[in-house]
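Action item from last meeting closed. Structure (318 res):
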């Protein structure tokens, strides 16, 4: 079998993808990342891989070894939604991904790249993964803007990889996100907060349409995400941009309750005002329309929030 490249292999989703490929006995994996961070070291050192390439040297490596490559998963990105230095996103999320696209087009290699539900902004145009709305979307932060800028660029290209797929990840949670700090999932923050204080604090609602704790997100377990990515590599559906969530929005209150249940502790949930600096950009509802992926042939059931939280808390965090 030809080699499979995974960028962002020391990160959250990338490391889980490498682990899933290993479980399928795919050991010819080339891992790509900035491997200098010690807090990400355990995400890759126990995986099986045939080569390890520093991110800044990747395209030199690719130009030499492209004949041995059968598929590219470009998962690596700067994902900090609180970062406002746009040059960081331009370099890592836009320019690097454009170079990846151009290389895969030149060498006729299939490509999956990571887009984001952050491209949808406040959801003014809904959460449909139609190509015709991409230019209308108004992301709320530079991270979302960078992801949408690449989506727009990709749809304008006439030279493309032999197959290509951009996945708009919704609220992904699960193991190997320990290094993400503020950007880690609410489940991880909830577990730590409950472990330390015995209680969980959620943001109040400042919208009359939503009660406290009933703000809704599409929370998707990382194991489901990597199942979709590997299925895409194996089945080669129609090219394009796809949503990747569960298709079922759930309230933050249900998430908090699930964490308490998984920890075998009584619920102790209170509410505080949403910080004013993010209040006007706060999303009260996100939900992936998954019809496009289902139509493409993906028919596996997504893990429920309660089941995913229980497995994550008891099998990993605890």
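Sequence:
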């Amino acid at each position: 079998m030809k080699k499979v490249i995974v960028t962002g292999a020391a990160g959250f989703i990338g490391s889980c993808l490498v682990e899933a490929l290993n479980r399928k006995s795919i050991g010819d994996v080339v891992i790509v990342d900035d491997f200098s961070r010690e807090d990400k070291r355990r995400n890759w050192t126990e995986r099986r891989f045939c080569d390890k390439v520093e991110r800044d040297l990747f395209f030199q490596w690719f130009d030499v070894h492209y004949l041995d490559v059968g598929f590219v998963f470009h998962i690596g990105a700067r994902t900090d939604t609180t970062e406002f230095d746009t040059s960081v996103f331009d370099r890592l999320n836009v320019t690097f991904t454009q170079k990846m696209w151009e290389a895969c087009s030149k060498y006729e290699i299939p490509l999956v790249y990571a887009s984001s539900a952050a491209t949808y902004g406040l959801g003014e145009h809904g959460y449909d993964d139609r190509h015709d709305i991409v230019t209308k979307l108004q992301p709320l932060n530079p991270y979302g803007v960078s992801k949408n800028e690449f989506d727009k660029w990709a749809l304008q290209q006439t030279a493309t990889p032999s197959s290509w797929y951009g996945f708009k990840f919704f609220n992904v949670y699960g193991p190997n996100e320990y290094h993400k700090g503020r950007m880690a999932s609410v489940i991880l923050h909830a577990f730590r907060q409950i472990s330390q204080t015995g209680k969980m604090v959620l943001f109040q609602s400042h919208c009359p349409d939503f009660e406290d704790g009933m703000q809704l997100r599409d929370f998707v377990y990382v194991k489901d995400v990597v199942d979709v990515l590997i299925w895409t590599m194996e089945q080669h559906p129609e090219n394009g941009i796809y949503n990747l969530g569960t298709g079922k929005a759930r309230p933050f209150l249900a998430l908090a309750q699930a964490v308490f249940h998984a920890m075998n502790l009584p619920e102790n949930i209170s509410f505080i005002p949403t910080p004013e600096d993010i209040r006007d950009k706060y999303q009260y509802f996100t939900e992936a329309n998954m019809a496009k992926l289902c139509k493409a042939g993906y028919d596996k059931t997504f893990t429920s929030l309660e089941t995913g939280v229980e497995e994550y808390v008891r099998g990993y965090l605890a």
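Note appended to the action item: The mean pLDDT is 95.
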